[in-house]
Model the fold of this input.
Amino acid sequence: SLKHMKKAILMISFGTSHLAQKKESIDPCIEAIKEAFKEWDIYETFSSGFLRKKLKEEQGLVLPSPKELMEKLKELGYKQVIIQPLFLIEGIEYDKLIELAKSYEKDIQVQVGKALLSQREDYKALVQEIVREYSQMETQLLVLGHGSTHEAHTSYHILQEVLDEAGLKACVTTLEDRDKIYTLPLEKGKVTLIPFMLVAGNHILKDVLSDEETSWKSGLTKLGYDLEVIQRGLGSYKSTSQIYIQHIGNAMRLYK
Done:
């Protein structure tokens, strides 16, 4: 019967090689999802082959690739699987999971949940929490994303719009815009930098906080800003877990 059918949710994050960062920004999402969907078995892994290899070499921790995990679920007789990526946007990594899901269609009913920011409502939910957390601070906010793919750039544009609509004095930029740092529309004085990434990982520590000439800290300090960095990934925000839970719920409805 349907009730006893084996069903799993597969949580795929890009990953991190620092387990403290996983605990801070990935685990809260996993825990919230376990709590929300008690009748589903929850599995998790990292999509980044580079990070899986690093964890194996440095910590002896062996994580399966998403494909190996799907193979395992097929062997174990799972009939319904929801792959939920813990990605911010639907870029190249997301497309790979869509392909992976398609390759199992014959054996398993597979759905892929949406990435964190797939509609304007998702941005709004997240921005509401950012407003609650940071609007009382006597500071200007610099929201820093990863950058890269062209899809990501539209998403930073939407984020800026939604922040503006919420009346929060915040400026969105990306790691790749480091060389345009002097064009930021900020007044001299206190600036608080908020990482707009699931995990505030090595990028933040290296590219932002180091004393290297090329870091954001050095650049902003030289321009007369007093910089504070919130070392916290989006995965630790309650709204992030809530949005993922909603996207999994939407994927489940497709099984009815």
